Amino acid sequence: MKYSLKAKWFSPDTSSLSPKQISIRLPILASAKIAAICEMFPSVTKTQIITDLIVEALELFTSDLETELGNTFDYENLSDENVSEKALYEKLTQKYLGVHSENIEELE
Predict the structure, then answer these.
(1) Residue 1 and residue 28: Cα distance in Å, rounded?
(2) How far, in Å, CA of 74 to CA of 98, rounded?
(3) What is the dihedral of CA 9, 10, 15, 19, to 10 degrees?
């Protein structure tokens, strides 16, 4: 069964947000599309809509990463071995997840 953002927006939100807020400037067309979605789903916050769209885009990005060592990265500060795009992405994700966890602990 395909995941549906519409179905998610009709369900209660149980996600937790990062303690740090970021600000970005969107292209005008993207901003207009988000405003249209907000009007279509008035019970969902703009933050939740943007967050869900970013999460979906990240899932698409992740599914497109190479898992083979054909396209390798060799970042000296990360590893002494060649890793696939997917392995590097997962390693960096864990690195920054740790940073965010530390930030949350500092706030408590």
Answers:
(1) 33
(2) 22
(3) 50
pLDDT in tens, the chain (108 residues): 456 777 777 777 767 777 778 899 999 999 999 999 999 999 999 999 999 999 999 999 999 888 877 544 555 555 546 678 888 889 899 988 888 777 666 655
| DSSP secondary structure code for residue 2 in this structure | -
Compute φ and ψ for 26, nearest 5 degrees.
Answer: -95, 155
With 0-12 / 13-18 / 19 or more C-beta atoms within 10 angstroms meaning exposed / middle / buried, residue 17 is exposed
CB of 9 within 8 A of CB of 49? Answer: yes
Query: What is the distance between the alpha carbons of residues 58 and 81, in angstroms, rounded to a whole number?
Result: 25
Can you name the residues that pair with 84 across neighbouring β-strands?
A: 72
Rounded to 10 deg, the angle between the 46-63 and 28-40 helix axes is: 120
